[in-house]
Design brief:
With 81 residues, this protein is mainly alpha-helical. The protein has 3 helices and no strands. The protein has one domain: ACP-like (Non-ribosomal Peptide Synthetase Peptidyl Carrier Protein, Chain A), CATH 1.10.1200.10.
Length: 81
């Protein structure tokens, strides 16, 4: 997957979990965790595992604090998908 495809996939997951937020307008460095309740944040991580088989250890959750961080973390894991 390209960075753009990964970005769209994360936005799609975010939209399914919290549909009253305009995730497409999210700036790359904007704080994601501030817009998500803790259970919603965990749901995003679980959905990534379910859809793409990506195991994200709890020690790596900090990478998911921004959209840029999500894409940076996921890019090497999804390069062949």
């Amino acid at each position: 997957m390209t960075r753009e495809e990964i970005n769209k996939a994360v936005i799609d997951i975010l939209t399914e979990i919290v549909d009253d937020e305009d995730w497409a307008a999210l700036a790359p460095e904007e704080d994601l965790k501030g817009k998500l309740e803790s259970m919603d944040f965990l749901d995003v991580i679980m959905e990534l595992r379910k859809r793409y088989g990506i195991e994200v250890p709890e020690a790596d959750y900090h990478h998911f604090s921004t959209m840029k961080g999500c894409v940076d973390y996921l890019e090497p894991h999804l390069k062949d998908k």
